[in-house]
Design goal:
The protein is an alpha+beta fold. It has eleven helices and six strands.
């Protein structure tokens, strides 16, 4: 090899590694709060009011009063869009889109609204002086000009109870299944929904190893359960399936590679792959899934994980339209 084409010197390599590692740690401390052991800790949502019919509640269920602010790449916001579609609430609850700014690290409104250009502007309108995180989804009350709730797990419960949809008879959180749904939700949130982030945002090897083991242990457990259940809680779709779906949809696209969740793909599982296709093919769900936004938001904006910002060409998702045959599982059980 000629001198001009030789690899960088040992000194340059060591210096570059030191500088990059130091900068990576600084950036990750802002992006992903960590424990002393290097494990990612997700901050709590701050707005936790509810829409209900109680007489003294300021947030009554009314069509065309509430609006969802969502980013199409965000799995937590995606939950609200899936629930909205399944319940047929498209004409009752409006949606405004936001997208992440790669340079400023905030969500920007696709179109200015209410004198706001960014999501932090909206949060300030709702609560002047607010200093917390400005995250999606946001359930906005147009009547009182404020944020009702910014916790996706609670917003989808509210949407399920909203009686203004064209599919209001569908109950995604029935009383008889609540205990079972809640058990799945607790397990799946920690090890799968947030588990993929605990893998991707881990700042020590031990934190990553622990998160990765828990993630795939739970995916294996779910795959076994789906051998005899069409959905997580039987033969009807519930909020537990909605909460799992948005993570599974992103798994092979971004989490498998970018977040180092690469033991297996979802499509490689006997039951999980078909289950994902089943949920994707439910009425209205596919229309909530935006592959290009997901790739752009993750690969293009998570600089510490993908410094080059190169967005991959794949994967091919045409397999999601293939027959799933999950209806046979319910028939065999019955």
């Amino acid at each position: 090899m000629s001198k001009n084409k030789s690899l960088p010197s040992k000194f340059i390599v060591k210096l570059g590694k030191f500088v990059w590692t130091t900068m990576w740690q600084i950036m990750m401390s802002q992006l992903a709060p960590r424990s002393d052991s290097g494990e990612y800790i997700r901050p709590e949502s701050q707005f936790r009011d509810f829409i209900s019919t109680e007489a003294d509640n300021p947030y009554q269920p009314e069509a065309n009063r509430y609006r969802l602010y969502v980013g199409l790449g965000c799995p937590w916001a995606h939950r609200t869009l899936v629930t909205r579609a399944l319940k047929g609430l498209e004409d009752a609850i409006a949606v405004s889109l936001v997208y992440p700014s790669v340079d400023s690290g905030i969500w920007v409104l696709e179109k200015p609204e209410l004198g706001c250009q960014t999501l932090p502007d909206l949060y300030q309108l709702a609560q002047p002086g607010y200093k917390g995180r400005c995250t999606v989804p946001v359930l906005w009350d147009s009547k009182n000009q404020t944020i009702v709730n910014n916790e996706s797990a609670e917003i989808i419960v509210m949407l399920n109870k909203f009686g203004c949809g064209t599919n209001s008879d569908l109950d995604l959180y029935p009383d008889k299944l609540k205990e079972q749904i809640d058990r799945w939700n607790d397990k799946i949130y920690h090890t799968v929904n947030n588990g993929v982030y605990r893998c991707g945002f881990a700042q020590t090897q031990s934190a990553y190893d622990r998160a990765c083991e828990e993630l795939f242990t739970t995916l294996d457990e779910i795959d076994r359960a789906l051998n005899t259940n069409r959905y997580l809680c039987g033969d009807t779709v519930t909020l537990a399936d909605v909460r799992l779906f948005t993570t599974l949809f992103r798994f092979d696209i971004v989490y498998h590679g970018l977040f180092k969740c690469n033991r297996r793909r979802i499509r490689d599982y006997d039951n999980l792959g078909a289950y994902l296709r089943d949920l994707y093919q439910l009425p209205g769900v596919a229309a909530t899934c935006d592959l290009e936004s997901i790739k752009r938001d993750y690969y293009g904006n998570l600089f510490p994980l993908n410094p080059g910002g190169i967005i991959p060409a794949g994967p091919d998702l045409t397999n999601l339209d293939q027959p799933h045959h999950r209806e046979k599982v319910a028939a065999n059980v019955n």
